[in-house]
Specification:
The chain starts with a strand and ends with a helix. By secondary structure, the protein is α/β, with parallel strands linked by helices. β6 and β7 form a beta hairpin. It has a 6-stranded antiparallel sheet. Strands 1-2-3 form a 3-stranded parallel sheet. A two-stranded parallel sheet has the order 4-5. The protein has 11 helices and 13 strands. α8 packs antiparallel against α9. It folds into 2 domains: about 140 residues, Rossmann fold, CATH 3.40.50; about 120 residues, Riboflavin kinase-like (Elongation Factor Tu (Ef-tu), domain 3, Beta Barrel), CATH 2.40.30.
């Protein structure tokens, strides 16, 4: 098993997961991951809570794709925040999970006041019959990979840097829901996909969509709060697909983000917004035709 927040499931996380899965395969064990929801910082300092890179669904999707067979999601509330490192070892790692191998990063801490570390886990190994493995930090282009650096890349709209840190394009997945049909009335029907309300990324993007038919479909996506249409609206992902029509309601789709075209803005009128959507669609088509094959 491995333990962490795994926000973004970047290359650093993947190093932990690869070692976990390799040990599990060798020893005939289940490859498990333990994560926390919400982020521990959301409990201690709500005003300093880091924005989400991806939602829980994307995290689970990515972990499963890398070989994790069992995912434990611990609700980070007062009981867990106040649990001593010794109690976490005894009650959860030993009694609940029956851990045999534990894989952690070199900066791993756990328990109340971050009392627990690699050395504590290792010293508890004799009593609990487990081995502890430490994975060193991972760097790419001389940059240490972390959720913070990935978050920074996404805030800046730098999807190339984000892809280097993740080892894959940035994606969001979710079920297509019924919307207000405003895009259809403007000549740009969209797939409406609810997302986590505190994602760090927003704007207009050139994308591809997987999950509708056998091949990926090109499109343009808007991820934002639609200030021209609503005041204080929830974050929503809207995707207009090129050269496709049909019913996708209820489908689970994956949106692959290739290029940020611009930030979300407020328009003086729906007509002005419609003209900009047309320009965005053309820009997305050109980018995908030229760069994505």
């Amino acid at each position: 098993m491995t333990i962490g927040n795994f926000d973004g499931v970047h290359l650093g996380h993947q190093a932990l997961i690869q070692q976990t899965c390799a040990i599990a395969a060798r020893e005939g064990l289940i490859a498990a991951a333990v994560t926390f929801e919400p982020h521990p910082k959301a409990f201690f300092t709500r005003e300093k809570t880091p924005g989400k890179i991806q939602g829980l669904r994307e995290k689970a999707w990515a972990l499963s794709g890398l070989g994790i067979q069992e995912l434990w999601i611990l609700r980070f509330r007062a009981a867990l925040a106040e649990m001593s490192a010794e109690a976490f070892i005894r009650k959860f790692l030993s009694q609940s999970l029956c851990a045999k191998h534990i894989v952690v990063g070199d900066d791993f801490r756990f328990g109340a006041k971050r009392q627990g570390d690699f050395a504590m886990l290792a010293s508890a190994g004799a009593t609990n019959d487990w081995q502890v493995h430490q994975v060193r930090e991972v760097s790419v282009d001389n940059e240490r990979i972390s959720s913070s650096t990935l978050r920074d890349a996404l805030v800046q709209g730098d999807l190339r840097r984000a892809e280097r840190l993740m080892g894959r394009p940035y994606t969001i997945c979710g079920h297509v829901i019924h919307g207000r049909k405003l895009g259809r009335g403007l000549g740009f029907p969209t797939l409406n996909i609810p997302v986590h309300d505190h994602l760090v990324i927003n704007g207009v993007f050139a994308v591809q969509v997987k999950g509708i038919g056998d091949a990926m479909i090109a499109g343009v996506a808007s991820l934002g709060r639609r200030p021209t249409i609503e005041s204080q609206g929830r974050l929503l992902l809207e995707v207009h697909l090129f050269d496709w029509s049909g019913d996708a309601y209820g489908r689970l789709v994956e949106i692959i983000f290739h290029e940020k075209l611009r930030d979300e803005i407020h328009y003086t009128s729906v007509d002005v917004m419609t003209q900009q959507i047309e320009r965005d669609a053309q820009a997305a088509r050109h980018y995908l035709n030229d760069h994505v094959h």
